[in-house]
Amino acid sequence: MILSVSRRTDIPAFYSEWFFKRVEEGFLYVRNPMNPKQISKVIISPEETEFIVFWTKNPSPMLNKLEKLEGYNYYFQFTVNPYDKEIEPEVPKKNIIIKSFKELSRKIGKKRVIWRYDPILLNDKIDINYHKIYFEKIAKELSDYTEKCIISFIDMYSKTKKNCSGKNIRELTEKEKFRLAEHIKEIGEKYNIKIETCAEKIDLSKYGIEHTKCIDDKLIGEVLGKGISAQKDKSQREECRCIKSVDIGVYNSCPNKCIYCYANFSCELVDKNAKLHDINSPLLIGNVNGDEKITLRKEKPVVAGKRYIKQRLF
User: Which InterPro entries match (predicted)?
Assistant: First the structure.
């Protein structure tokens, strides 16, 4: 089983103590987002949890506690964007984030820290030249600490449009995507960072930019030193190539409050849910009420030969 920690909220930044306690106790609960009366019990152990993919904008709270993940295999999807507090209200300043990125890379190796530059958006202040300048600034800082950058372009979902109201944020045209992709590829080559896209329809292969998987069987296999047998995650949108995983996050619970986020409907809901967080609960948000149906989540192993390799910290 592969754990996704998490597409729905930034667990490393805000809920890492809860996660480590769940690792200690060996299980957690996940409510069905479509039916809160249904709860899955997810076993966390080196035997059952074959791999963990962390998603974050700030793993700082985890950095001095990675030894608690001894025996587990994992990598980080780490977002570093060029946006200010108007767009990413609660994300720390870039110098703090870049310092955290470098420290994490030194601890676990640069193959396992993937830079995300997404979503790429435009407004009255942010144009193609802005992205060209700041992508290179960040790439220069991270060039010795990562091997890959995954980019994606903003999709204006109805929730995103609502949250971005009044900010004049818009999607890129196809022509703008091509123009920026060419610049980004050149910068990637300059700093020896491979550029790939996430969940995009647009074909950028003429610039040497291919589609990738954020939860990637190839990379997981490289980290494990074993073959992986896994299917596409059918619960994700068509353009997403990720393999199947179990996401343990909760919608409307990420205090980063990025205005482009598809997982937060409103800041009011985020604040309400954050107050319901109980570090001692097996649920990320709230507690079991007693009227739910709790079912053990079982997934087919993805590791060929079912051999587990104890993880080292570098």
Answer: DUF1848
**For residues 207 and 116, what is the distance between their CA atoms, to the nearest angstrom?**
18
Which residues lie closer than 8 Å to 166 by C-beta, 6 or more apart? none
Check residue 228 and give its pLDDT: 87
- Which letter, b or e, does each residue of 24-59 get, where b requires 16 or more Cβ atoms within 10 Å of its Cβ? eeeebbbbeeeeeeebbebebebebbbbbbbbbbbb
Task: Return the pLDDT at 230.
Answer: 85
* Secondary structure (DSSP) of 268-306: HHHHHHHHH--TTSSBSSS---S-SEEEE------BGGG
286 φψ region: left (φ > 0), alpha (ψ -120 to 50), beta (else): left
Question: Among residues 53, 199, 77, 200, which one has the least CA distance to residue 148?
Answer: 77
Segments of the chain with pLDDT less than 50: 307-314
pLDDT at 309: 41
- 11 close to 248: Cβ distance less than 8 angstroms: yes
